[in-house]
Amino acid sequence: MANIKDVARSAGVGIATASRALNGTGYVAPETRKRIEEAAQKLHYSPSVLARNLLRSRSGIIAVMVPTLSNPFFASFTQDCEQLLLGHGYKTLICCTVQPQNSEQDYLDMLRSNLVDGILTATHSFNDDAYRESGNPIVSLDRNLGGNIPLVSSDHCRGGLLAAEHFAFAGCRMVLQICGSDVQNGHLTVGEAHRSCREALLASGVKSEILFTDWNRWDFTYYRRTAAHCLDAYPEADGILASDCLAMHVLTEALQRGKSIPDELKIIAYDGTDTARLASPALSCIVQDTAQLARTAVDTLLARIQNVPIPEPPVCNVSWLQGTTCP
Amino acid sequence: MANIKDVARSAGVGIATASRALNGTGYVAPETRKRIEEAAQKLHYSPSVLARNLLRSRSGIIAVMVPTLSNPFFASFTQDCEQLLLGHGYKTLICCTVQPQNSEQDYLDMLRSNLVDGILTATHSFNDDAYRESGNPIVSLDRNLGGNIPLVSSDHCRGGLLAAEHFAFAGCRMVLQICGSDVQNGHLTVGEAHRSCREALLASGVKSEILFTDWNRWDFTYYRRTAAHCLDAYPEADGILASDCLAMHVLTEALQRGKSIPDELKIIAYDGTDTARLASPALSCIVQDTAQLARTAVDTLLARIQNVPIPEPPVCNVSWLQGTTCP
DNA sequence: GTGAAAGCGCTAACAA
DNA sequence: TTGTTAGCGCTTTCAC
Hints:
The structure is a homodimer. The first copy, chain A, has three domains: 4-47, lambda repressor-like DNA-binding domains (434 Repressor (Amino-terminal Domain)), CATH 1.10.260.40; 61-153 and 292-315, Rossmann fold; 156-289, Response regulator (Rossmann fold, 3-Layer(aba) Sandwich). In chain A, 44% of the residues lie in helices and 17% in strands. Chain A has 13 helices and eleven strands. In chain A, helix 9 (191-203) links the parallel strand 6 and strand 7 (207-213). Chains A and B meet through helix 4, helix 5, strand 2, helix 6 and helix 11 of A and helix 4, helix 5, strand 2, helix 6 and helix 11 of B. Chain B binds a DNA duplex through residues 3-5, 8, 13-17, 19-20, 23, 25-29, 32, 47-48, 50-57, 114.
């Protein structure tokens, strides 16, 4: 690969002149510029981003950390971030933490070692200290990392309330809320949804049970087993709240058992990704606005990187999407 | 951020010694090593990957190009690649080409400018020349780029055959095959599936129509419109072959119109991602083995990077997954 | 065993 | 307007 020295030599000019011409920075005679450009063309010159990065100590790369891309919510969020970041001149490095051995620490080290300029994390693990200590531009989705790490999240409180209202309105007597075990440490803001939902249900005289799923499990078989377990262990439940994938499995499993939906069992899917909207019968959903989440997260991160004061990130919208699994 | 010079100074040694101690390369007295390590610890030293990369002219990053992560097949493939690459010490840069302005060219330039060590492309656009000219380590999924760019793909010929067999067995008289318009340039290997399916159908006396979808469209509304269009425009079709997402929309739309599935209409989903397996009634699928595809693609790319001779990449398995939308 | 120095490819002061 | 030079932070000869 030809480098700038080759180009300069070939054009019969100094290195700095070549650099200036190629970057359009500083003075350079039109005729010289032409010679340089031709030389660059001829040699297929392409500047080394590596060298440039070292000089500027920035890589132009942002890491997006998610548990797994196989979950449509995270896939969608990642996709949205990638597009937005691209618009700001950043590339996106993807980090899936579904395998416990891919410790978040390794990913955090990328920040310190300058491999990435910032991190946008949407993972669910526990070691919050590592994040705080890492100190650099980090923005968190849906998980309160403490320190002064900006938190971006949906209005889960309202989300939970919406769900409760619809369950109650539909005449449920006993709702099973399925949520990740990781909400238990209290740092996951989605816990708010379950808290507010439960509170509102109880206030309306509806019973509520909470079932915690295993940590960091996002696979088909686990979902299916969990769905079956719910129906086995809580036969009296006439309402179930679960995130998209799980809700779809519950729906499938319930139909297979001959349950009539929504008559015998109401289901509300939390997240409301396109995937959930594809189920038949259509799932009733609490929809998180991934586009808004991504936009907020990216804007906040970029502000952080540029060291401009960041406005308190707005809480993102949730909305009700009427399906047929809960009126 | 402390650099190696700071560490060396703090430990009272030369830079080279510090480097050797920290990397465990070359001789260094145990006691000196200890001093250096302590200094590094104290200063929170973390080596700059940027500098190291420049020196080695490698970044340890692989780019994975897909149309969009919102499609579960690509999400799954990307996820699998990321995990495998991580095991080989590579990070994964994600490039979504759903927006036409994010030209593949920009991404290819990353190769030349050393930002990535290799590219794994699974996009569907047309400019094959750019790939060939870029010359560096590239592996293609499901798209014949020509030159000597390795191609990894499923046994689509068998996939199409399987589909045809099941349609015929189910007693279909007229099958509608929906496929991306991009197969028309003949470079997309998935075209094989449709070719072989159609051939086998015709041979069995079953009619076959092919409907081409727009290029590079992967959104919910487009899917839905297309599904509706299929049912409108081909009322006589009693079998439909479509990729997962579209198949799910067709299923939903058909049910909404009161069609009885599979009695009046058989549906086979091509890809068979977890998402499709979640539909109710369960979709009958031709399953591509994304794990195997990813493994093959990654192995081939790494061989290419290390400049070892690459065995002809094996054609990956497809299999039939019995659902209830086609017996 | 250790350290000085060269250099990866580039940009930005500073001189000329 | 152009060229020389000093680094960015690191690894790696090659003397000592």
